[in-house]
Amino acid sequence: MEGSEHSPPHSEAAFSIVSGNRLEEVPLEVLRQRESKWLDMLNNWDKWMAKKHKKIRLRCQKGIPPSLRGRAWQYLSGGKVKLQQNPGKFDELDMSPGDPKWLDVIERDLHRQFPFHEMFVSRGGHGQQDLFRVLKAYTLYRPEEGYCQAQAPIAAVLLMHMPAEQAFWCLVQICEKYLPGYYSEKLEAIQLDGEILFSLLQKVSPVAHKHLSRQKIDPLLYMTEWFMCAFARTLPWSSVLRVWDMFFCEGVKIIFRVGLVLLKHALGSPEKLKACQGQYETIEQLRSLSPKIMQEAFLVQEVVELPITERQIEREHLIQLRRWQETRGELQCRSPPRLHGAKAILDAEPTPRGALQPSPSIRLPPDIPLPSPKAKPKPPKQAQKEQKRTKPSGHLDKPPIPNQTTAMTAGGDACAPQDVTLKDPASQDLVPQDSAPQDLTLHHSQESLTSQESEDTYL
Q1: Does one domain contain both 134 and 46?
Q2: For burial by CB atoms within 10 Å, which of 149, 186, 242, 374 has the most?
Q3: Which of 302, 319, 347 is the last residue of a domain?
Q4: Residues 272, 208: Cα–Cα separation, whole Å
Q5: What is the DSSP letter of 431?
Q6: Range of the structural domain that residue 39 is part of
Q7: Segment 389-401, tens digit of pLDDT
Q8: Which residue from 44, 41, 87, 89 is spatially nearest to 64, judged by alpha carbons?
Q9: Cβ distance 164 to 133 under 8 Å?
Q10: Is the dihedral of CA 86, 92, 94, 96 positive or negative?
Q11: Is 223 in the same domain as 136?
Q12: Could you tell me which residues come within 8 angstroms of residue 165 by beta carbon, excluding any fewer than 6 positions away?
């Protein structure tokens, strides 16, 4: 079975089959429309997150267009912000030698990650090299955590969609914001979430809950790989991508919902339980899930409709934490509180930051003019009339006011700065009229280059 414990997760053939099905399900015109909508969102990200977050969530549920998935994951996770806040940090970590204790373990795990994918098929190939760089950098970034094997498939999926530096910061966000404590030495956070999952199962599927209770099957036996790898080693590839789209937007509740849906449809009826008479048979049933319940359209619909909220998860978290403290004492892992999705991560930003702006894919020296496909902005007619009606002293009847519409047109790009009034950087006063056209031209040459990020074309 694809992605099972004993078989390679995803072959090259699997990608072509998925692509073929995808093209049949989503017409090309619809895909192009979705790309256009996502480009508009990404170029005005902060405004959309502030005012239209529900729309972003709905579009993530429909599926992020493949050409923009990597960039969208960076924006949703806050990895883009972390990269901007820490310029050069990844390069610094990349150049550091690292702890030999972790380097040996990472090296041994490289060939196990998606071994039939073209990025990772070659030992020592560029995919394995980047995977090593990202995982090593994390052990240096968080030496108290080090390396956990479940981080490798997470980093590998990220590297399929973005360069190493961006993948590193997305991995940081997953480990610190989405799934804090999952990769610590004692795995206490994953044990706690196993109890939360099992308690929520009683509400979703009493039949499955009763069966697992009777068989005395610990949640860790079936949910550890699901949750720690975010289903990257469990589901078909198209389903993995759709789950991750929603996970980056809505947080860990998506992981809980997927787990509950799989348990419900694998063990949630007397007919299904006929083949699960003992512990071994039940575990095997959960390790060899039916392709039907993992199929992309079915799974996504079930996950979206399942009424499990962040509030329910957090309430259950407090209950299970109290039980843990009563039976086992205090948690040894002091991980930060978990944030439920992109909106919570953005709201938790400690200090004001600059708006996210696409960076140019081509950089030219500022003194080189860039030809514009549009006509040069002309002075407004009203300003021309004002110039004609000058007094003998040479002063205008009214002082000239820089036209904001003209400045926005010159900006060209959708992500032009909001404050378009031309000012002198030193004095913060309006610049003289005769110097305005020159500044507008420079503004155009810089902004017209911001149409696409360098990583947008990374497929």
Answers
A1: yes
A2: 242
A3: 347
A4: 10
A5: P
A6: 12-184
A7: 444 444 444 444 4
A8: 41
A9: yes
A10: negative
A11: no
A12: 83, 90, 91
CB 408 within 8 A of CB 385: no
24 and 58 within one domain = yes
Burial class (CB in 10 A: 0-12, 13-18, 19+), 359: middle
* Global pTM value: 0.73
Burial of 155 (0-12, 13-18, 19+ CB in 10 A): buried
The residue among 441, 377, 406, 412 whose CA lies nearest residue 43 is 412
Of 340, 361, 329, the C-alpha closest to 455 is: 361
According to DSSP, the residues that pair with 430 across neighbouring strands are 423
423 strand-pairing partners? 430
Residue 455 resides in a domain: no
**pLDDT > 70? residue 68:** yes
Among 162, 184, 206, which residue terminates a domain? 184
CATH code at 72?
Answer: 1.10.8.270
Domain count, the chain: 2
| 176/335 Cα distance (integer angstroms) | 8
The verdict on 237 and 304 lying in the same domain is: yes
DSSP string, 383-429: HHHHHHT--TTS--SS-----HHHHHHHH-STT--S----B-TTT-S
Angle at 225 between CA 148 and CA 58, to 5 degrees: 105
Residue 408 CA to residue 121 CA, distance in Å, equals 48
Q: With respect to residue 250, please indicate whether it lies within any of the assigned structural domains.
A: yes
Q: Whole-angstrom Cα distance, residue 77 to residue 176? A: 11
Do 201 and 171 reside in the same domain of the chain? no
Return the CA Rg of the chain.
Answer: 27
Task: Report whether 59 contacts 38 (CB < 8 A).
Answer: yes
Question: How many other CB atoms are there within 10 angstroms of residue 451's CB atom?
Answer: 17
Is 401 among the domain residues? no
Q: What are phi and psi of 430, to 5 degrees?
A: -65, 140
Cβ atoms 135, 183 nearer than 8 A: no
CATH of the domain at 340: 1.10.472.80
Are both 196 and 338 inside the same structural domain? yes
- Rounded Cα gap, residues 337 and 200, in angstroms: 20
The yes-or-no verdict on residue 456 having pLDDT over 70 is no
Residues 219 and 115 in one domain: no
Q: What is the mean pLDDT of residues 228-232?
A: 95
Residue 80's nearest CA partner among 36, 43, 113, 34 is 43
Segment 10-41, tens digit of pLDDT: 433 333 334 334 434 678 888 899 999 999 99
In contact, 442 and 368? CB cutoff 8 Å: no
31 and 166 fall within a common domain: yes
